[in-house]
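Data card: per-record layout.
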Amino acid sequence: MKARTFRRHVRESFKSLGRNGWMMFASVSAVTITLLLVGVFFVIMMNLNNVATNIEEDVEVRVHIDVAATKENQQVLQDQIEKLPTVKSVEFSPKEEELDNLVTSFGEDGQAFKLFEQDNPLNDVFVVKAKNPTDTMQTAEQIKKMDFAAKVKYGQDSVEKIFEVTSIARNIGMVLILGLLFTAMFLISNTIKITIFARRTEIEIMKLVGATNGFIRWPYIFEGLWLGLLGSVLPIVIVGASYYYSYNYLSEKLKGNFIQLLEFSPFIYQVAGLLILMGVLIGVWGSLMSVRKFLKV
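The structure for this 297-residue chain is written out next.
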């Protein structure tokens, strides 16, 4: 496409928006409302997914080493665990450290456990993390069969419920997001169709006097692009401002908690980019689908 032709198509798209102000307002409003819903829901789902991921990453297998195991036996056991394909890391926690953790976890009541410092009844422990949190149960079962693994703990019932709940939540969230996207595409494209339908005579006349399909189509493509861009501005501002204040308000209250919000930057810029991309793609797609039927004269 020549630069002069390109400028002509862009200029005509702006003129068309000006001549059809009410239709433009209806289209931009449809884009704004649907993208606002998508943006809000996307922010919520991404933060819920982040919480689920943090919970999963905290899942670990605690391997209590047999008290009869020598240093050599412990090393052999560690080597066997590290060779498992599902294992990400293995950390050694001596029984002295385990006792300190026990005292700390009970607060003031834990001071009584200091009586065991001279004769510590606890086991040395290997803390094992799986590469994929969902492999935790499989990893634990394999370690149980190894020599000198006296006890293997990973909170079996709790872990299974966590993975089940997070999996269901992610699947439901994905279905809802896809449903909302298709709804947005349907509403926006139909609104743009109404806009172009009102100018069908103009398209038919241009076609009859010899204008090519591409020459007729390009101004409408640009028009859909501008509608998508304009419709994405307000959702970006509302979602960005809401998340900024929510993040500043909740981040301090949730400090030290396993529930953590995604950091404002770069997350909100990613959301903004997504909304702009969606607005542009839906606007252009709606224009292409709408103008196509009127090109068959």
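Known properties of this structure: The first strand starts at residue 61 and ends at 65. Strands lie at 61-65, 87-93, 125-130, 149-153.

See the next section for split statistics.
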